[in-house]
Write a structure and sequence with these properties.
By secondary structure, the protein is mainly alpha-helical. The protein has helices spanning 15-59, 75-91, 115-120.
């Protein structure tokens, strides 16, 4: 206010300007909502695929925990990975051996006295 007179100028909008402003805001809200929805759908698909992986592994007689380390992005790549592990397990005479502490499996081994020396060239000969 200057000298008792209101000097503030009020801006008025035409209906077209109001429609344009509202349309822009709605478009931004929709884009944000769409991004959130896509993110939730992606997370849901990943959880469903992980559950499917555990089921398929169990059906093949494989540990369900393999689902945590297998690489797959869809049902097809999941089935290929599980089939490959199952094939490897089936081709091993005693199945796959998982040794977490890097020891050889217990049992008879056909190592002779110098087989490790030869393998690691410990005897100085090439």
């Amino acid at each position: 206010m200057e000298n008792g007179i209101n000097t503030e100028i009020e801006k008025t909008f035409t209906q077209a300007e109001v429609n344009h402003i509202v349309s822009e805001r709605l478009a931004k809200d929709r884009a944000k909502g769409t991004a959130d929805l896509e993110k939730r759908e992606t997370e849901l698909r990943a959880r469903e695929l992980a559950m499917s992986a555990r089921e398929i592994l169990a059906e093949k007689g494989l540990p369900k925990d393999l689902a945590d380390i297998l690489k797959y992005s869809d049902e097809e790549s999941l089935k290929k990975a599980v089939d490959r592990i199952h094939e490897l397990k089936s081709n091993e005479p005693e199945g796959l051996k998982v040794l977490g502490d890097n020891r050889l499996p217990k049992g008879d081994h056909d190592f002779n006295d110098n087989s490790l020396e030869k393998a690691f060239r410990l005897n100085g000969k090439d």
